[in-house]
Q: What sequence folds into this?
């Protein structure tokens, strides 16, 4: 993601947080799980129980109330936004080795979390196991191992240091 594109996403996230009364959420990174949730809501796409649990865990009760009341400035039917969202999901499925015929959209937040290099919870790992997504699980394990190494070697303060751009000598 280019610097300019990142700035645009940060601004967009800020606008969505304001619109959906989530301004007390401190993280402004477009890699935040909340950004994915608010984008889905703004596109008129229903969110999952897992996403509602995330909102509750972050005490975003006004946001939950707005979403449950059906608040959106526009309800989108099959639009370019939904198409872009679908394309993002397909790209994540490819990147994380999810079979092309596996069409469960509840995986989108989980794949987005992996793409943000965040560690999966035990229930998310169990979900991958239950659906025999072994290659995806292997990638999730690599991310977890890399996070441990970053912590051991105190490399966690480097924002752009990831397992993808790291070379082993």
A:
């Amino acid at each position: 993601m280019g610097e300019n594109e990142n700035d645009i996403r940060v601004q967009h996230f800020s606008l969505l947080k304001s619109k959906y009364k989530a301004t007390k959420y401190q993280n402004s990174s477009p890699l935040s799980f909340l950004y994915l949730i608010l984008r889905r809501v703004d596109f008129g796409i229903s969110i999952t129980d897992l996403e509602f649990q995330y909102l509750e865990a972050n005490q975003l009760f006004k946001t939950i109330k707005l979403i449950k009341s059906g608040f959106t400035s526009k309800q989108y039917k099959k639009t370019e936004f939904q198409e872009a969202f679908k394309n993002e999901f397909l790209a994540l499925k490819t990147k994380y080795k999810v079979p092309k015929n596996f069409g469960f959209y509840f995986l989108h937040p989980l794949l987005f979390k992996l793409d943000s290099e965040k560690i999966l919870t035990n229930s998310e790992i169990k979900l991958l196991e239950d659906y025999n997504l072994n290659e995806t699980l292997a990638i999730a394990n690599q991310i977890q191992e890399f996070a441990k190494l970053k912590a051991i070697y105190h490399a966690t303060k480097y924002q752009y240091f990831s397992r993808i751009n790291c070379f082993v000598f």
About this structure: The CA atoms of residues 60 and 119 lie 22 Å apart. Residues 3-68 form one domain. The chain has eight helices and no strands. Helices lie at 3-19, 33-42, 49-57, 61-68, 80-95, 107-115, 122-130, 134-152.
